[in-house]
Amino acid sequence: MVRSFVASLIALVTMAGIAVSVSAGPISGTLSGDATLTPTGAPGVFTQNYTGDGNDTTFGSFTVQSTSTVDFSHPTNVVISDGMFTETFSAGILFGTTSGEGTASGVGTATFTADVVFTGGTGLFAGATGGATGLQMLMTTGPTTVSGSGTYVGTLSLVPEPSSLALLAPAAFFVFNRRRWAIAGCAFLVYMLPPLPRCSRWAYSSLKVHPSVSAFPDSTIGSACTSTFSRFARRLLTFFKE
User: Fold this and answer.
1) For residue 130, what are the contacts with CB-CB under 8 A and spacing of at least 6?
2) Structural domain count, the chain
3) Whether residue 195 has a cis bond before it, omega within 30° of 0
């Protein structure tokens, strides 16, 4: 019994470990898009609204939208802060925050490095955490518009689907209680089946008193029924002991 219990417990723990371990991994890809810069009232500081698309090596294509504050007030430095983004995949939406800094060339281009923090999502990305580093290049396309393209690499951790762990609970309950159920089942089969033809002592005596109406005049019905149920109960108990 102890060995069977321990083996079952180890199997359940192993299944749970697999469900959790496969949920984390690297994330990387490319993206590009266009942004509109809106003056904030502070000299050289703008609100950036960015839309674009990209391709992730693990999760496939996506569209992205983001807003952030871009500070050009200290040439040639570029500071990006208060960034928020959403990336929409076929499997769900991933969202997070961004910040970073870079350098402007003075001829309408700039490069910057962004720190990305994943804070959650929907669908596959519900409860996601992690982070990435992005490298992007911007090019001025008008007085208040820019285009950009870049790459990112990082780590993303996903929460296992609730159903994966929920399915383990009934299995654990079954393993821990199967012996109790086996004993109860055997007791039911042996003691609780009347009024099926179990052929009690009263029924057997009745057959002897009225042999002319007996359907089984020469058989030991009581012992056969009891033997059949006992064999079935013993097999059921053996199965649950394994």
Assistant:
1) 24, 27, 117, 118, 154, 155, 156, 157
2) 2
3) yes
197 in the same domain as 151: no
pTM over cut 0.70: no
HSE-up of residue 15 (Cα within 13 Å, Cβ side): 15
Torsion of CA 129, 130, 135, 139, to 10 degrees: 10
* Alpha helices for the chain (secondary structure H): 2-21, 162-166, 168-191, 201-209, 221-241
> Does residue 139 sit in the same domain as residue 221?
no
Contacts for 116-119: CB closer than 8 Å, 24+ residues apart: 116/85, 116/152, 116/154, 118/94, 118/154, 118/156, 119/95
Q: Fill in the amino acid letter for 158.
A: L
- Residues 47, 35: contact at Cβ < 8 Å? no
Q: What is the pLDDT of residues 43-63, one digit of tens each?
A: 999 999 999 999 999 999 999
Residues 111 and 207 in one domain: no
* Same domain membership, residue 179 and residue 145: no
Domain membership of residue 230 as a residue range: 175-241
114 and 212 belong to one structural domain? no
If you write DSSP's letter for every residue of 183-212 in order, what string do you get?
HHHHHHHHHS-TTSS---HHHHHHHHH-GG
Q: Please indicate, yes or no, whether residues 181 and 227 belong to a single structural domain of this protein.
A: yes
